[in-house]
Structures
1.
Amino acid sequence: MTGDKAAQNAWEFTGRRWFFPSALIHELDPDASRSGRRPRRTARDWAVDFASFLLAVLVGLLGAETLSDNRDIPPALVAADQVLGALSCGAVWLRRRLPLGLAAAMVPVGFVSETSGGVAMIALFTLAVHRPFRYVAWVAATQLALVPLYFWWRPDPDLPYPAAIVLLLVLTVAVVGWGMFVRSKRQLMLSLRDRARRAETEARLRAEQAQRLAREAIAREMHDVLAHRLTLLSVHAGALEFRPDAPREEVARAAGVIRESAHEALQDLREIIGVLRAGESDDAGRPQPTLAALETLVAESRQAGTKVVLDQRVGDPAAVPASVGRTAYRIAQECLTNARKHAPGTEVTVAVTGGPGEGLTVTVRNPAPEGDIPHVPGAGQGLIGLTERATLAGGTLEHGPASDGGFRVRARLPWG
């Protein structure tokens, strides 16, 4: 696959170096634009410049033949005309580097030298391709203004005076129009390339943002799940540490909770790491808990020694939308985890009310703990994550101290 991609890039680069002019490649290639160096001629540039040189020489030879047939022109003037024509043909190779200077210089040279007429037209075409219209308008208007005077000074032996003027006017306008068409076509190509680059950049930014949001969601899920499991481990391990003389039944029960919680934490961690490796969303793996699993969560907390009162006034928890039920479950889970850490021994009340059309309200409250409770450090990221989770679900979350010194968390979630 890498070799095919390299071959394709090489082919595209070679084709571009042939079919595109160097100025357009310089605009299309950002590395060339940043280098500040003048673009080198491509193979196409050499072919076009050589063809332009041959065309200028051919027109100059036709003009020299016309001068030699006119017996009224002095030989010295004919020789001077041919010298100017030869120098003008050589100047064709400078048309890409100095388009405005060459076109402006060819206005007086083309007026006094008939063999330089082809170079004047080529310079005007190059100016129309490489410079804005205001420069082209000034140079072309000056040439058109000199056309009647030119044919008055050097009348064409084969055409009448009005026909010669009209013919040269039409030729000049056609050259300018052709050059402007080529310029507009190149600008269109540049605009399409710029749009493609912007689209690629926007797509990359959207992908990075989606990846960041997915990882943040996985991080919140990891915090909610593992914090609950590890708190259970800490509580039962602490009970075994401070009560080594506890009955065998209590020790066995605590050891069973520790083993089960460790197993669940490892399984949750394994699933989350698997999601990160696969780059998928956090919907993979086991089904996520909803409001119907709230009673199981409360029973698990009671088994860990936390006094929990569940007041669930939702008739059918399974009818709650999955996203709303999962958010309510995570809010209750995080609040029970915080209560075990910061207010051990207190009775935690979990109230869930609401119905379709009126929304779902989750309230978790605990009184102030009695006695001296050791300070448990915390960064407050759990409550911040809960607030963000509720906001993403379209609801609100309030938390803070209660009037009796306890703590209360209240969330309102939509249930349309």
2.
Amino acid sequence: MDKEKSPSEKFVLEFKEDAALTEMMRLRVSSLQKSGQKRQDGERLLLPYEVVSRLDFPVQELNFSHWYFSLSGHGRVTITGISQHWTPDLTHLMTRQLLEPIGTFWRNADDPEDLPLKCLEADMQEFGERIAELAKVRKVMYFLLAFKEGAEAANLSCSIEFLPEK
């Protein structure tokens, strides 16, 4: 007899900005600019409209269920996963560490506020499944969130729902 999943069995994890890592990556960009040096081959520098966020996984055996995102106003937000557990104070972020696909959602300037956000559903599904796979081998995962076309971090709420593996 199948037991219906109770709400308590769901894990809804919110993307939380990691201000310390974001600042450290901004300092790297600033340091390179001041010294006139170039980035290392393959190094991925933080762009002015990006922040570093993280997900902390309470358990490792998860299945992706659903994305929740809301954005006041208009704009485009992209979420890029980072495949390796890195720390900018010890190692630089390399482009090869960025996951495909990326998650993208947006609202056009002429769309009414009550219109649901648009997204690339197949990519968002695959991205959520990829995050669940990586959760099996780590307790925290980092992401680059990019805010474009008028989107701002203060206007974003983004979380992801997982169900435990049975």
3.
Amino acid sequence: MAIIPAYHYPQQGKLVVLGAGESGVGTAVLAQKKGFDVWVSDVGRIADQYKKQLEEAQLAYEEGQHSEAQILAADLVIKSPGIPNTAPIVQQLKDRGIPVIAEIEFAAQYTDAKLICITGSNGKSTTTMLTWHILRQGGLNVGLAGNIGRSFALQVANEQYDYYVLELSSFMLDDMEHFRADIAVLLNITPDHLDRYDHKLENYVDSKFRIIRNQRPEDHFIYCLDDPITKAGLERHQPAAMTLPFSLTEKVVPGAYLDEKNELVINVPQQELFTMDINELSLQGKHNIYNNMASGLVAKVQELRNASMKESMGSFKNIPHRLEFVACIAGVNYINDSKATNVNAVWYALESLAPQIVLIMGGVDKGNDYEMLRDLVRTKVRAIVCIGKDNSRIYDSLEDDARIIVNSSSMRDAVEIASHLAQKGDTVLLSPACASFDWFKNFEDRGNQFKEAVMDL
């Protein structure tokens, strides 16, 4: 165990956890092991699996409310990233000077492991999984956590990993003050969650750049040189770490780039030069070349052998709900991209697939700007089938470019309509561009309902 000296949070006393999901319950278990008097509060209903964990650990909890007196008596509060800093209970805590931090920052105090942290508007789950796969196949003792997999805090409590690959959302980064990433990866920045950032892109950019906060010259910052918002953000956020950019359009040394032979080249100081034909990558499409560049740079910083990297990058299977092949029925391919919850993710999906596409999209609009999809819709999309309660913005933006655009009454209805519109050789793509909570529990539920409907055709 290593308490990082820069951290000045209480190391004993009453600790309150707000939110009893994966991160909250894991935090409670770790805090109990470290000697805190732990109490868990969730304003909603706690899922049975987490309630069972809390009861087995004999941890006190409440559900369906936040008892202010109990919470405001805390010495330290760990909150779920889903609870905004503007929430009244959080404001009351801060007004009283009670520290409110995230699970990731709390758990990082109690591990000596090297922390490899990945963020971005799109591709972070795929890149996190790919990085973990490459490092694990390369023989490193590595855990997977953050916005994916099991709770980081729970793993710190019960495991002994030398490395962690952490997927970090902007909401997680917002709650970090003293946390330091040994390797920080910023894949891209596109407008997303702007409702949480006063509808100001610069606020969201500042949130993403918190990933380089507290880095030192011996650390590494990996980023996409081709992303204009990231490049603009670098003018305001100067990294202290060694920078390793990646690009499809420029030869960057040190860094990663695409050469004239369509080979991915990774050049890291004092490491053997890595090259790989992009056609040998298991993940295809322009966006996945970027993902492989980022993961490959992490692997090279960790001094992995070229042969091991090539085997891993050629064998990796993508995560569920991210351009996931479901079935080929009557010559039509069905692809589940339910994790595409913003417009840029849909652009990547359309860009990576051949025409003709029947696109299933819609849901809870987050202030989306669909303009960037117009050219791809015009050239690649046979029809759009809308899901969700209100798709007026999709109609307003894309009606002139889509040959056919229709509504549906359920996921099953959408899949049936799409199957009738599609022709042999087409692809039916679920890539919503929107949040899921009007018709579905979450994006996993949406993707699973799509897969079930496809298999029932």
4.
Amino acid sequence: MSVHSKKATRRRVMSALGAAALAAPAIRSAHAQAKTIVFGGSVPLTGAAAETGLNVNNGYITAVSYFNDVLGGVEIAGEKYKLELKLFDDASDPARATTLIQRQIDEGTNFFLGSFGSNIVLPTAAITERAKKPMVQTGGGSDAIFTKGFKYVFGMYPRATRQFASTAALFKTLTPTPQTYSVIWTNDAFSKTAGQGVKLSCDAAGFKKLDEFELPAKPTDVSSVLGSVRANTPDLLVCVMHDQDSLLIARQMVASNTNVKCLFQGLGPQLASFREALGKYSEYLMCSTYWDESVPYKDKFFGDSRKFVEYYKTKFTRPIAYHTAGAAACIETYILAMQAAKSTNPEAVRDALSKADYETFYSRIKFTPDGDGDAIIMGSMIGQVQKTKLEIVFPEAASSAKALYPQPTWDKKA
């Protein structure tokens, strides 16, 4: 995308968010005179996390637009409300994000949506916690977010160390059964704890660990690590890091002819942009995914996932991702909690969120006492790239295709 296109995209996004430049006040919606529920926060529209940040942002916009324009608002305790977003670009910078969140609290915002990345969600959640304002977020899974005793932050995923159990269960179903694994993570809050979760789950499932590697938070070269991988050649190579780092590893594996029977990348292959960037080499790659438009859940607002996707496509041409659906589900979860509480008081809504047991188009929503998603109810599905599409291969009840294993060597991919 050209610089001009990026600037134009950002202008459109900021306009859709209902927020202008940071120095300017938020632009009020057309429904400013009606009773309004404001959702504040920040999203990374620029910087390192922008690729997924835009997906999160689009999910928030889609949900608010649907509730306002299609449903005419929401009813809570017999009163009608319109929804308003008051989100700003945090540029993937935790310091900038915390400044933005504190400013919004000072201005009276009561309900918050999360940014993307545990390195941003953790410090911003600490601020909303001190102010006793709820945050429902789809962008941070680090254990640190859920082990500090916070009572006002709720996440749409299990904490990082609990996210790999379903993947280890899939590995045990592969034929011939894999025996060994190696794991690579980056030095950031989410990836480090996710790496620990990989080891806990794979060891418990009986796989033998050959190597573990920690990369810098922003790696630029992984050739020495891949040399070690080639020397030991695990059956399973598990990479837990953010999308752009997964792409770096896959490209350098292709370039160095580093082959394994299964390459699992926690984040990356779920994005159409990742698959397009890697082309034919994305085939057979596996990843976690928390949502697909074929999931069987239903709700009283969107109806089901396919209808959500249909509406999303009337707003955006950007390919949909599970973070998009998860972000929209944050809004829906807030509304369901407010209706259950019969209140828009922040503490009453927090209490309702802690007792949530709702079915949405995205998933059944149920949080642990620490605020992360229930490990079974809100755990991941496993996707695999097959013929350029991401097919669900686990669990069997949600699968759209069978897992393909072992993957061919890079030079044999059509």
